[in-house]
Amino acid sequence: MEEVSAIKSILNCNCPRCRKGIVFKYKNPYHRKFGEIKKKCSNCDLVYEMEQGFWYGAMYVSYGFGVAIAIPTMLVLTYITDLEIYQITGVIFLLLIATMPLLFRYSRSVWLHIFIRYDKAVKKLK
Ligand SMILES: [Zn+2]
């Protein structure tokens, strides 16, 4: 069986322990219930929310992603266009709203991969 890299696992929102199970209930990030997370991995039975409030920490990752989008966008728009600062702020705001489901998912996926290591020994249970 081929081994899945951590980056690929994060991008696919896979379980960090077995890298096979899917964390989110709906595959489409723009599904209206995009944020719903399964209770545990369908492959290795890892419980995703290890403790109450575990996902609050993902906000730090999400903030980092937001800044990583906002700063380059601001710099590019400032030097390439004649837009005013309030227009640039509006563009960044719309961009962050449009990418919000993706930021939400990837921040949680990164957060989960920070705390749970890949375990080669974990086999399919069912
Ligand atoms: Zn798993």
Features:
binds zinc ion; mainly alpha; 4 helices; 47% helix; 126 residues
Q: In short, what is this structure?
A:
By secondary structure, the chain is mainly alpha-helical. The chain has four helices and no strands. It has one domain.
Rough shape?
A: elongated
Order of helices and strands: HHHH
Distance between the termini: 17 Å
Bound molecules: zinc ion
Helix content: 40-55%
Radius of gyration over C-alpha positions, nearest whole angstrom: 17 Å
Q: What number of domains? A: 1
Structure description:
The chain has 126 residues and is mostly helical. The protein has one domain (6-115). Helix content is 47%, strand content 0%. α2 crosses α3 and α2 (58-80) crosses α4. The longest helix is centred in the middle third of the chain and has 23 residues, at 58-80. It is elongated and about 55 Å long. 18% of the residues are buried. The model has no long low-confidence stretch (mean pLDDT 92). Bound molecules: zinc ion.
